[in-house]
Amino acid sequence: MRLKLLRHATPINNGCLAGRGDVDADCSDSRAFAQMRDMIGDAGHVICSPAQRCRQTAKALNLFPAQFEPALWEQDYGNWEGKRFEDLPDLGRMEPDELATYRPEGGESFEDMAARVLPVLDRLGDDTLIVAHAGTVRAALSLTVGPAALSFSVSPLSLTIMRRTSQGWAVEAVNLTAGHA
User: Fold this and answer.
1) Which H, E and C letters describe 108-174, residue by residue?
2) Domain total for the chain?
3) Against a cut of 0.70, is the pTM above it?
């Protein structure tokens, strides 16, 4: 079973952390969208986070009809939601295991978010494309590398490809963007 994970297009968030905020996506780069659609190829079954930015990205790529799955929402950053990136607290150096369990006040940790995303992936039986968030992609990557998945860069409108075999999950590609086409 092949799993393709597409992060939504660039969020229109005015330099602020969106997380659970339902912001729009910038779907104006028709060349990048055409290249990404070619990279995706046969999408198989399409599952989409219900977030506006994900739905807009799927629509711009003509990936409907899609199934909407609330468990694929981005991590809830609690009191950090809507803050400018430069105003977020500096957590200093944290080991991946420690960072994965860190929970911003009123929010959820990466482990909390992964605990709702991974059951969705476990249920998949056919080739699937998921249109979701950077956190969703990292949760999937954690199936192979654990909390070290937090170190992966996941650009807007990027594709990550994994394959489930009888031995478990394997990563084929991470963070492919239209420039890689």
Assistant:
1) CCHHHHHHHHHHHHHCCCCCEEEEECHHHHHHHHHHHHHHHHHHCCCCCCCEEEEEEECCEEEEEEE
2) 1
3) yes
